[in-house]
Amino acid sequence: MENNENCKIELDDIGFVLKVLGGKWKLYILTSLYFEKKRFKQLERDVIGISPKMLIKELKELEAVGIVNRHTINTVPITVEYSLTENGLTLKPILGQMKQWAVQFKQQLKSDNQ
Amino acid sequence: MENNENCKIELDDIGFVLKVLGGKWKLYILTSLYFEKKRFKQLERDVIGISPKMLIKELKELEAVGIVNRHTINTVPITVEYSLTENGLTLKPILGQMKQWAVQFKQQLKSDNQ
DNA sequence: CTGTATCCCACTGGATACTG
DNA sequence: CAGTATCCAGTGGGATACAG
């Protein structure tokens, strides 16, 4: 298969990732959930700047695609726990690579300036 | 260090990545350039749906942060080649993981529907 | 606490045409 | 070919208040 074919396929795959994880907030939410299950309010605090409207919207989308799980507990007032599904856990390598790259690239920028 | 501290740091790192690679088009452009250096028009064709305005804007941003290199050649008409810098090449693991996850997750969706 | 509903504006970015 | 300029619609998403 020629190079350009490979390129198109990979562009397609990246498009798929962007469709699922794209947007302003999803990666933040997933990063937070990656550490442990969180309640709505906890997520709102973790993801600085997000409004409840956006938070619930993103959570619903992530739930719809099967990456996030929503679990309600009948307390008063109601408690809701969000967690990663098994499919959600497969994102670990992506988030891990991003984190690693960030650390590495920040370091690079620093030494460039010296 | 406690868990929540780690979470905040990682959220910060993800934020950095999003600042550099976020938006609608950058990952497409980088994916395309990852295969080989490309001319402006070639990128316009690869990244389906992008307008020249957006393409040049994203390229300038990527150039500013030192991920993409712009090289002009004095032909008539002028030729411009865009390529990844050494720093840009360090993105390979991220793109690779994304691609791999896309393939894997699409497969998962397929078998869920059966 | 966990969301919903509205109002509304800034900005992204699409379409198109044009220049060097 | 490689970009620039302009015009403008759509909408992402902020602020705020409210409901269950």
Automatic annotation (TrEMBL), chains A, B:
<protein>
    <submittedName>
        <fullName>Transcriptional regulator, HxlR family</fullName>
    </submittedName>
</protein>
<feature type="domain" description="HTH hxlR-type">
    <location>
        <begin position="7"/>
        <end position="110"/>
    </location>
</feature>
<dbReference type="InterPro" id="IPR036388">
    <property type="entry name" value="WH-like_DNA-bd_sf"/>
</dbReference>
<dbReference type="InterPro" id="IPR036390">
    <property type="entry name" value="WH_DNA-bd_sf"/>
</dbReference>
<keyword id="KW-0804">Transcription</keyword>
<keyword id="KW-0805">Transcription regulation</keyword>
<keyword id="KW-0238">DNA-binding</keyword>
<dbReference type="Pfam" id="PF01638">
    <property type="entry name" value="HxlR"/>
</dbReference>
<dbReference type="InterPro" id="IPR002577">
    <property type="entry name" value="HTH_HxlR"/>
</dbReference>
<dbReference type="GO" id="GO:0003677">
    <property type="term" value="F:DNA binding"/>
</dbReference>
